Amino acid sequence: MSRIEAIVSCLDGYDPDALPVDKAREAIRACLTPVAEAERVALRDALGRVLAEDVVPAINVPAHDNSAMDGYAVRSADLRPDGEVVLREIGSALAGRPFKGEVGAGECVRIMTGGVLPPGTDTVVIQEVVRADGGRVTIPSGQKRAQNVRYAGEDLKAGIPVLRPGAPLRAAELGLMASLGLGEVSVKRRLRVAFFATGDELASIGAPLGEGEVYDSNRYTLHGMLARMGVQIDDLGVVRDDPALLEAAFRKAAASADVIVTTGGVSVGEADFVKPLTAKLGEVLFWKIAMRPGRPMAFGRIGDAILFGLPGNPVAVMVTFYQFVRGALLCLSGRSGDCELPLLEAAAAVPLRKVPGRTEYQRGVLFREGDAWQVRTTGQQGAGVLRSMSEANCFIVIEHARGGVAAGERVQVQLFEGLV
Ligand code: AMP
Ligand code: MG
Q: To test ligand 1's pocket by mutation, which of 200, 211, 213, 214 has the most ligand atoms within 8 angstroms of CB?
């Protein structure tokens, strides 16, 4: 038995002809080995990459105790709980221009947000509540010791690791590393993903559409989905349904890529033709997944590359990509933690048709009515209606065992847009 088959056939409930989505995901995950190689890049270039080292601050952030407000730095021992006090202003501490000297009893210093707290002081009184008159500053009662002070190291502490290998580097992490003065960072190398579309009926954009042909849209959808994931992409074009051409394409892809993604050629009749070919080049399993859309899918290995043979239907390509390929690419790229899209809940605004025994990914529009989030479908849900993906802002994920959903029932949704 092949290696991949040996791994997946050990999983409980593994049935290639009726594979629940969770099982397919588990089977895929069991076969993935994340990239190990790393490279050093300039901080800006690390956006969207995966961290390959520990980030341990060499300094505290902030480096000094400082003021969170514009006002006066005072000694709390000088203040009175039951009445005002008058202090003498002896200088100023601006952001980047510390006060040089010590603040003694009865004295205070004008301070601005970010200004270093002068030695001797421990509290900041906001300017709005004081009366300042020719160097005499009147502080009202009711101040709390240590108020409006930001302490050294309260954001990041020297010596305490703040990011671990596997962390995704987003806007916040770039800023965080910049706050430590780091100009370069070690990241996992980018994944290389080669992809092609298969089908004799496919015409390329720019050419006239022949009789019985369709324009190859999947390659553009795939381009978009892969480009957004920050992987290095290699578009190998359209490959006709011809064993020699397909073999050449698979060999070319496997020679340089970590992952190969194809569309078409995995539905029942077609798989019979692709199966012997892929068996010759590696080990590939042909699955019927209990999902809609996206039932047929191939998964395996060609040479050292992982293969995802996605269905040909345009919506099925996107659904299988987001449910299986996306998470696998994140895992392969070395991302730690949960790589799946979060599931949120909303109320079904309309009844939803569904049969038990498969997971459905209906295209939905999540909208707010009053204070409740509701979701409706985009209408026509055929696997070929790509417009449904364009009109949708979420998938409505209806679980395997569930039947039809009545209006008002809670359903799960996966949002298309994320904040960071
Ligand atoms: P297949 O999985 O190859 O049997 O294809 C299923 C359906 O998807 C057929 O209607 C194909 O014409 C269509 N299809 C396959 N590949 C593409 C593609 N690259 N772009 C647009 N439609 C496609
Ligand atoms: Mg085809």
A: 214
CATH architecture of 38-58+163-188: Alpha-Beta Complex (3.90)
Between 419 and 186, residue with greater pLDDT:
186
Each residue's pLDDT tens digit, 241-285:
999 999 999 999 999 999 999 999 999 888 889 999 999 999 999
* Whole-number Cα distances in Å, 266 to 92, 148, 179, 272, 275: 73, 64, 50, 8, 9
Domain 3-37+190-332 in CATH 3.40.980.10? The answer is yes
pTM above 0.85, yes or no: yes
Q: Which residues line ligand 1 (CB under 6 A)?
A: 197, 199, 201-202, 214, 216-219, 263-265, 267, 270, 311-314
Q: Which atom of ligand 1 is nearest to the CA of 265?
A: 3
According to CATH, the topology of domain 66-150 is Molybdopterin biosynthesis moeA protein; domain 3 (2.170.190)
- Domain residue spans of the chain: 3-37+190-332, 38-58+163-188, 66-150, 344-415
DSSP track, 326-353: HHHHHHHTT--S--SPP-EEEEESS-B-
